[in-house]
Amino acid sequence: MEKKNIDDKFIGLKIKDAIIFNENLKKYVEITINKSGKEIYKIDFNSKEAVYEYNVAILKGLYDLNMKFHSDALVPTPVNRYTFIYYIINKFLDNLDNLDKPKLNILEIGTGSGILSILMSKYFCELTNNCEKDDKLINIYATDIKEEYLEIARENYSNNLDKLKLPIKFVNSQGNLIKNILELNKEVDNKFDIIFTYPPYYSDHSVASIRSFGGADAEKVELIGGGKYGEKFSENLIEEAKDVLNENGIIAFMFPDKPEERRVLVENKILNCNLKLEKYEIQSGKRKRHIIFGIKK
Q: What is the CATH code of the structural domain delimited by 70-295?
């Protein structure tokens, strides 16, 4: 099966066009005229409120999704999240035997607003052309530690239900990763084909503040990955994932560019758990992101 290339229409929305999809954005936009008489649209990206409204517009304009976020949480960047999901699905397509499975279980750890799982639900079938069989069973499970985040995720799911292809069940992890979540044990016997996360990645030495955490006024447990470089959460997740991934199953992470040491530790953990390591660097505006896969062979 030929892979689909990422469509340019999914990876950018000008501020001028974003206003069309979210009028609340207008009050955060400054319009100036340059020497050529051209209008220049600018947003103060240090303003969490402006970023919030801009990303709401992007979700509507690029992905036809109506979403909101918790006021205290990180404001996710939709284009990065879509790109992450796109890479996950295409990596899953690397082994076409995956498409012959009558049942697929997909798990997100730390869903927050639900954006990643909702994008997965919307685009998995489109990118794989593999949901048309009546006997095909594909389920997405999305966990989080905070019930108030899960309430927003469920609301976002309900508000977009007519556009989504796969069911999502939102589960309170009660502070667990995978194995000790009773609801997952009961429903899927803890076996998954895809596990993915945009993990907490701050080190033990990070000082909680709204600015340092990307606009989030959140508890340490949500944002601190632990360890010297913030790697501990991801390492612990890999340790559990290696036992619950089905054959050819994948675990996927997305990380910021720095520090490199964090990525190296996570990559080494993948190799030490006898998973195949694959990694990709993506560019989003001026920022780099890294997608890291562990594949069970």
A: 3.40.50.150
